[in-house]
Known about the structure:
By secondary structure, this protein is of the alpha+beta class. It has a single domain (4-102), classed as Roll (2,3-Dihydroxybiphenyl 1,2-Dioxygenase, domain 1). It contains 2 helices and 7 strands. It has helices spanning 4-13, 59-68, and strands at residues 18-23, 29-34, 37-42, 51-55, 72-79, 84-90, 96-102. A 4-stranded mixed beta sheet has the order 4-7-6-5, covered by helices on one side. Strands 1-2-3 form a 3-stranded antiparallel beta sheet, covered by helices on one side. Strand 5 and strand 6 form a beta hairpin. The longest helix is centred in the first third of the chain and has 10 residues, at 4-13. The chain starts with a helix and ends in a 7-residue tail after the last strand.
Amino acid sequence: MRDIEASVAFHRDVLGFETKAMMGDPPNFALLTAGGGEIALNLHDDPQVNGCYIYVTGVEALHDRCVEQGATVTYPLTLEPWGLLNFVIADPDGHKIAIGEQKEAPAQT
């Protein structure tokens, strides 16, 4: 992350994470938690754009929250053929975050 405080605010305000720890002055590391999961954010001058996947309960409500908070949705809320309802957003550094919930049993082939 280029700006830990901005990234913490994004994950808190858009995704509902809580700050568990922040280190440095100014901050260069943060540990966030939500729903029993944790995510670590590290300061880096040139962060690589890669992705992560977060499984949730209540994906529709979280999608609505992301849209209301102005998050950049890069893949719309979609029910995939394998029964996963998901969407993708970009954080302030352009990292892709896929968020989904299993809604139906995967189709048998």
